[in-house]
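Subject: Interface between my chains keeps coming out wrong

I've been trying for a while to get a sensible model of this assembly. When I model each chain on its own everything looks fine, but I need the whole thing in one frame so I can look at the contacts. Pasting all components below, labels as-is. Any help appreciated, I'm running out of ideas.
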Amino acid sequence: MRTRLAYIGAFTALAVLTIAVARPSGGSVSGKVTYEGTPAKQKPIDMSKEPSCAKQYSTPPTTETVVTGPGNTLENVIVYISAGAPDESSAPAQAVKFDQKGCRYIPHVLALHVNQPLEVVNDDQTSHNIHPLAKVNHEWNKSQPPGAPPIVEKFEKPEFIPVKCNVHPWMHGTFAVLKTSHYGISHDGGAFTLPNLPTGKYTITAWHEAYGEQNQDVTISGNETKTVNFVFKAKPY
Amino acid sequence: MMTMANKLSVILVAILAVPSFAIGQQAESHAAKFNGHEGAGKQLYYRYCWGCHGFRGDGNGENAPYLNPLPRNFVAATFKCRSTPTGTLPTDQDLYNAINRGFNTTNMPSWITLTDQNRTDLISFIKTFSPRWKNEKPGDVINIPPESKLTVESIKHGQEVFQKLECWKCHGQEGRGDGPSASTLTDSNDQPIRPYNFSVGSRFKCGVTNQDLYKIFMTGLDGTPMPSFADTMKPEDAWDLVHFLRTLQVYLKTPELALWQTTKEGAEQIAARRVSGTATGSGIKQ
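Reply #2:
Try treating it as a single job with all components included. I did that and got this:
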């Protein structure tokens, strides 16, 4: 009886401990990305050489190098923890999806963890070739005709890799291979959130395709939410 | 007090010592039954190769600004002609073949004038420029099944594959390297690069045989816009495509072209693709 009680007690203690450890701690960082100055005007893309894509748009889509929102907000900025991240060695098994649709990349910038599977899908009625121009990782180049199965690949080292389709020269994007899964990409209104941060000191980096990167240090304790804003200098060319 | 001769010899030793990188272990390479040695390869590299490929093997040699495409950067360890899948290192034999063959339409000549041993030694040394060779093994050599029988049907089916996979987007409908995307292509050095023009010449960048042609599109030419079709093309389709591509080489006597010529459709295509008459047009029959 006593042993049984002791066992039950031990298990309960273990269970409580596991829950306490597994439960994401509540600290988080959120903020907004804005720009000052005049950003370059985005040009309409001429897709006339690819009618199957061109007909999907009533007005020609524009390039996505600089995507802005109301109130000088900046989209497609990858905000991530560049130092102090608690999950540097564990890659999520869940694949990140990268879609080719209407001869554009969705998303335009994609972030993923080192060794996390990347799933490339072709939703178009034309062949694409996926060509990540990696310098630190391996450069590869694969064709994906319409209806072909997804291409699943991994990157072993952290790197910001420009990716392009040689057949459709306007298609280019970025794979941000990071040593962390704590990242956010600024969307409508330039907002981002990095949730589930344990107590600690972090370096937050914001990266933009055309405007470079910025760092800010932040210390999180307990369940607090810190606000970190980034302002990029926009160039008109 | 140093004598003049002593002083000179010290300077000489210092100069000679500059290219010797601290390499603990001597790398070896094995191709065509030869064992290559890094030390011997280094001597050869700094005699024959560094003018273009550079002191550090980064493709930034003295002659590089005058060359198009730029010399291979051995530090990046990205190679066009491989028997291994895209994104992987080539085998020693692939590099050996490249040195033997040279690269058609580039400034890289065939180094057949060096001995087999010399060329194998060079491979050992070239592999010291990138740490990839220490941390990784070459990819698994792709399997090339025996060539399927050459028939009119296989050529016709190859033509369908050519359309379906949109090879013409870059290479052009007649294989002249003038497809709609051709003018926009750049290589990994951001330099303009032309798609292969099938209608002239007999040699491809990575060889002359049907097997070489099969390998080119099943491995891709890394560092160029040419992708790998290994994931999407069945081997039998690939062989049919090889048969069709041969008929685009309208001035090269091949069994494929001869067979295609015997059909009505083929004869018309070939006649249309051949340039007849003179540059001034005076020889064209009306």
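Reply #3:
Confirming on my end. The two ends of chain A are 79 Å apart (CA to CA).
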